[in-house]
Amino acid sequence: MYRAGIDLGGTNIKAGIIDENQTILAQASVPTGAERPAEEVIADMAQLVRQLMETLKIEERELAGIGVGAPGLVDAQAGVVRYSNNISWENVALVRELGNYFSCKVCISNDANCAALGEVRAGAAKDVSNAILLTLGTGVGGGIILNGKVFEGSNAGGAELGHTSMILGGEPCTCGRRGCVEAYVSATALIRDAKRAAAADKRSLLNQMCDGKIENMNGKIPFDAALEGDKTAKEVVENYYTYLAEAIANYVNIFRPDVVLLSGGICNQGSRLTKPVEEHLSFLCFGGDRAFVPPVRCAVLGNDAGIIGAANLLGQNS
Amino acid sequence: MYRAGIDLGGTNIKAGIIDENQTILAQASVPTGAERPAEEVIADMAQLVRQLMETLKIEERELAGIGVGAPGLVDAQAGVVRYSNNISWENVALVRELGNYFSCKVCISNDANCAALGEVRAGAAKDVSNAILLTLGTGVGGGIILNGKVFEGSNAGGAELGHTSMILGGEPCTCGRRGCVEAYVSATALIRDAKRAAAADKRSLLNQMCDGKIENMNGKIPFDAALEGDKTAKEVVENYYTYLAEAIANYVNIFRPDVVLLSGGICNQGSRLTKPVEEHLSFLCFGGDRAFVPPVRCAVLGNDAGIIGAANLLGQNS
User: Which of A113, A146, A150, A163 to mutate: most B Cβ within 10 Å?
Assistant: First the structure.
């Protein structure tokens, strides 16, 4: 049997069909057009899956089901996207509405949960069944996999690892609170901190590498400037490692996963990112060396994680 | 069938035998004598259970099993207390050693996990199957119940809710880290903050209520002084509510439990504690009123929670 996975993003809808070996046999994407009514976006999602089925000459009876990863607050049990800032959805009954186009089962979850499940089934954590994933992007998404299954929380709105406060009263977060992990370890936060540091030290390489325009700052420049020996950039990067390790230690003390995964553009830094974080972790986790301290790995599937993970939502509750 | 539950504490070993209605039919306690070798403490635990069986005229074939809640880092799967500061144990194979005295099954878990399970089975959360418990005592223990079962973490050393950092680089914590929840919401932390406030404001009622001796400060005085209208005490208490709500919001954003439970002497404050915390929570939880915000309740079983919970460890994995 085949399964379809859809990654519903603010910019694009990506879909793929996988086989029983977790291989994506075909994939395609279309712009989300998030300004449109939800029904139109859902019609496009259905159309995208139909198109892939035609490409692969798959009939509906060969499709075990369709999984969707959606951004925002997703009520997986009810099949409803409660609220998504990115695509301006509120209480959209996605499972029912997409289900109208197909006879097979439809499941949904939060996009970060899907990415985590994808990496556990076919990516950087396929050797384990308990993992935590942090997506380090514009925001910080959290995915929690326990015994090979997505942990959504007991009621909708759980697994929001990025929205746990780390510095009470600290930097404002998109969720309305202050001091959240997202406000320190997202790519957005790193760029904010690098801009501030560059503005405070005009002689820092950070400015040169932006071609003198601070608005050109991105998540790669601080690492590049630090590698060139720039003291100010080094401080930005080292603070970032500290924030990330503190956040991860909190999740380790709660979940003790087999592995901690990181994803997003910052992961291009590879072991330059994971090694210092692991070093911090060995001191921060409860029980020190009397307890298991999980390795920190970069995700490997990129965009495919969301598709593979979404397709694997099927059978999560069986 | 009957089950025995043992609450192994730094000061006393408490044990009880329960029936299938979660009623404690008999209980007894002896001093732990934690300075002795672990084998002697374990022999006393066995003796205590035998004594209760005699009292109730229960034969061993009527005892389904024995559960133990132990302080510190407990490896429930291996049946080993990895490390416990309170009783100076390191790598004690408690399940095997206590098992030598009985033919029935022996299970162990962390004491806060047992307290949480007890409250879910027979106490303040018996209407739900997903709850978080914080024990607000000398330290802060965390218990997580998911689908009616203790969540230990995927590897030993999880569920340490008190050892998640809330203020990076803040107050030193007993675990060696800084800024942990325990360092702000334990009774010890409240007393520390009240002492500091009293020292800084000699005219505060906090001083009078200590009979002028700051070392007499306890966890009740700040609430009493605040109730009398003392401004300095009010500030201490309001900060405490803030810390507690911030910590709970973090756990809600991860677990979305049906209920959050608090235990420890501070719970004598009842709704004077839970109401302001619930008010803060409604603003702090991710998704605001689009998601479920759990009620905050005080535990009701007191010391019995540990015994009942420990007895209920049996059958957790079936």
Answer: A163
